[in-house]
Amino acid sequence: MPGLLGIEGLERPAIEAILHRAAFFQSREDHKDFLRGRMVVNLFFEASTRTRTSFEIAAKRLGADAISITASGSSVSKGESLVDTLNTLGAMRPDAIVMRHAASGAPHFLARYLPTPIVNAGDGTHEHPTQALLDARTILDRRPSLEGLKVAIIGDIAHSRVARSNVYLLSKFGARVVLGGPAPLLPREFTDLAPGVDLTYDIREAIRDADVIMMLRVQLERQHEASFPAGEYFHFYGLRLEHMELAKPDAIVMHPGPINRGREIASEVADSQRSVILNQVENGVAVRMAVLEGILKN
Ligand code: CP
């Protein structure tokens, strides 16, 4: 792999190879020879707990060196531009740059100029490819295939790069995706992203007979003005225990995190046996090991 910018452009065999390799890395065995001597730079222009930490752990478990830079602790805070920052880091010859940025398309733009492979760790409202990969790994740990599964993705779809990457991935593998949320946060254009994507403003309809319920945070940081009454959100769109009776008996509950308890999900559900939220976090390390190895091994 020359880098990883999104799921949209990845073919099924490439995704299958990453998921297969991630299953191998789920064991905590020592793999420190795999990428010894390689250097990964994590450059995060937006806040992150899971993605940044797991990329760093993934690199270190494979024997690579990893350093993490945040915008507030770098010369970005002194006015340095994105291109100048990346050129500066590129001049130090890292083997890969993992990057999160608030602007959709920022990693794609830089990948055209820099010879260093770039891994998209989330770009604006566009894509979050490794999140979709770790979500798929988490589902496949519990189901033999994605084919034919009903996956309900509920919440702030409009601002969600997680939803977009998951729509691309799940559709490539024959899952049926139903997007749910309030009208201002549920753009009809999402049904054009892939065949077989439906949307509904009724979360009960989304959850009915679902195999997977994926809840999303309301991304207030991307909304210039509130597009719905925040106090009513949980009443209409929060996932509560009573909703679980509508889903398949073995349905699982997912959330990319960070979760806002009492806004998009009740604690009783987030902490229930159905929740695989921490399994997603754990699989984030294995999937990012597979991605870094695919990019850096050769
Ligand atoms: N899911 C996710 O991207 O979480 P972080 O923002 O904590 O990295």
Overview of the molecule:
- The longest helix is centred in the last third of the chain and has 20 residues, at 277-296.
- This protein has eleven helices and nine strands.
- Helix 2 links the parallel strand 1 (39-44) and strand 2 (65-70).
- The chain is globular.
- The protein is of the alpha/beta class and 298 residues long.
- The strands form two sheets. A five-stranded parallel sheet has the order 7-6-5-8-9.
- It has helices at residues 12-25, 50-61, 82-91, 106-111, 129-140, 161-172, 203-207, 230-237, 241-244, 267-270, 277-296, and strands at residues 39-44, 65-70, 96-101, 118-123, 150-154, 176-180, 197-200, 212-215, 252-254.
- Helix 2 crosses helix 11 (277-296).
- Bound molecules: phosphoric acid mono(formamide)ester.
Notable characteristics:
alpha/beta, binds phosphoric acid mono(formamide)ester, 15% strand, 9 strands, 4-stranded parallel beta sheet, 5-stranded parallel beta sheet, single chain
